[in-house]
Design goal:
Protein name: DUF5666 domain-containing protein
Number of helices: 2
Radius of gyration: 45 Å
Shape: elongated
Distance between the termini: 104 Å
Number of strands: 24
Strand content: 25-35%
Organism: Thiomonas intermedia (strain K12) (Thiobacillus intermedius)
CATH architecture of one domain: Beta Barrel
Length: 475
């Protein structure tokens, strides 16, 4: 019987080993899948927490820090891309390359914040404010929410903050051609911008030209007369206006005046690259654009964008193909002005992205000149990451429900791949062997004749008939 059981076990062992190996492989596959789950839309699953759910980790005290680029979302410190940044007394401010102050900040302004962690909070070392265009409105289409300023086409969304010169809410219907405006916007390329804030400025004194500002890339130059083409617009350059040699592809801020004889640049300043060490964490929103001058990859906010791996590269390609709204990316500075992207979230509302909820339904803190809100329809975005809690800075991956705002047809999301089914394993059918009892021959005991024992013949000795007793004399 023992031999039979051993035979059965030996017959089953290959099948059992196959099942065990298959189960182990499936468990490892699921574990790897869970470990690599991006957490959030288009994420990579890097350590949860972080700045407003963005998952950016600046390192510890004395680390390389973090750079956040996006609109000012809320005050009480300032919130950018859902992260809260304190503004200590030593914070440095600049606006379009010129010295500024904290009072220069407004809701919706596009800023670049360079911060470090100090005692569990993020302190801003520097805040740079960037305006896309300042100048006179030459055309406006109220029905489409579109206007042209200095040759730039600016799209006004229902979410765009519109303000008067006194910083009061401004209905779009009150804007008209000839108005002077200052616009904070995200660059969509080819002279198109998506406005986050528009401020109506006071008209210049009679007889004076309207000051203008244009941020963009030099596309061409002309020596006679000296002119430059920025974002599709040719502008004359006053002698001595350029601080450096004009090079095609350079990012610049042009300032000048709009006069009857044309637009003349009085100052042409290159945009300084980010002065941050390798390893700095970067989080920003904007529109991906193809690399200029034949460079591979994409550009965003003046950075060269590369996927940190093949998955991120594929997600960047997907996000770049359809950009109905800005994309949020997070990654690491790997070389001068180059970011290795580790997380991609498409179609975000830049003004609301990842903002943590206010406790008890409080009204968000606002500066006195930023009170009020813009009436109108809900912006057409998917606001990913809204309401994520701010914790110690580190990349996030909590599961965040996608909130679809009214008026937006949500893109179809492919179903998650089905978990592979374990193949059926047919256990071998083993019939118990018929064991016949062994035939044991009958052993006939041999017949043994008892030995014949003849008793010995013993002759009895004859005793004497009488004893002769000697006579002993008496004394």
């Amino acid at each position: 019987m023992k031999a039979t059981l051993k035979a059965v076990v030996r017959a089953w062992l290959p099948g059992l080993r196959f099942v065990g190996v298959a189960c182990l492989g499936l468990m490892l596959s699921l574990a790897g899948s869970i470990a690599a789950t991006p957490g959030g839309i288009g994420g990579t699953g890097i350590d949860p927490g972080g700045i407003g759910g963005t998952g950016i980790s600046p390192g510890g005290i004395g680390g390389t820090g973090i750079v956040a680029i996006g609109p000012v979302q809320r005050f009480g410190s300032i919130f950018v891309n859902g992260g809260e940044y304190e503004l200590p007394a030593q914070t440095r401010y600049r606006a379009d390359g010129q010295p500024a102050s904290e009072n220069s900040l407004h809701l919706g302004d596009l800023v670049r914040v360079h911060a470090v962690e100090q005692g569990g909070r993020l302190d801003a070392l520097a805040v740079d404010i960037s305006h896309a265009v300042i100048g006179r409105v030459s055309q406006i289409d109220q029905s489409q929410g579109r206007l042209v300023v200095l040759g730039q086409t600016v799209q006004i969304l229902p979410s765009t903050l519109l303000r008067t010169a006194e910083d009061q809410p401004l209905p779009l219907s009150r804007l008209k051609a000839g108005d002077e405006v200052r616009i904070s916007a995200l660059d969509q390329g080819a002279g198109h911008w998506q406005a986050m804030r528009l401020t109506q400025l006071s008209a210049p004194p009679a007889g004076h030209g309207s000051p203008f500002l244009l941020r963009g890339k030099i596309e061409a130059t002309s020596a006679q007369p000296q002119r430059v083409k920025i974002n599709g617009v040719w502008l004359s350059v006053r002698s001595g206006a350029a601080q450096t040699e004009l090079a095609v592809g350079a990012e610049v801020v042009a300032r000048g005046s709009q006069q009857s004889q044309g637009n003349v640049i009085d100052s042409l300043q290159p945009i300084a690259p980010l002065a941050a060490p390798i390893g700095t964490r970067v989080a920003m929103v904007g529109f991906l654009q193809a690399g200029s001058q034949g460079r591979p990859g994409w550009e965003l906010q003046g950075f060269q964008i590369r996927g940190a791996d093949a998955l991120m590269q594929a997600q960047l390609q997907s996000a770049a193909r359809s950009q109905a709204a800005p994309v949020f990316i997070a990654g690491t500075l790997t070389a001068a002005q180059t970011v290795a992207v580790e997380r991609v979230i498409p179609n975000v509302n830049a003004l609301q992205f990842a903002l943590p909820p206010l406790a008890g339904g409080q009204t968000p803190p606002a500066k006195a000149d930023d009170s009020g809100s813009v009436t109108g329809a809900t912006p057409q975005f998917i606001s990913n990451g809204a309401g994520l809690k701010l914790s110690s800075p580190a990349f996030v991956a909590p599961t965040v429900p996608t909130v679809i705002q009214p008026g937006f047809t949500a893109p179809s999301i492919p179903a998650a791949p089905a978990v592979p089914q374990m193949p059926a394993v047919n256990m071998p059918s083993v019939a118990p062997p018929v064991v016949a009892p062994p035939q044991v021959p009958v052993v006939v005991p041999p017949t043994v004749a008892p030995p014949v024992v003849n008793p010995p013949s013993v002759t009895t000795p004859a005793l004497p008939s009488g004893l002769q007793i000697p006579t002993v004399p008496r004394p």
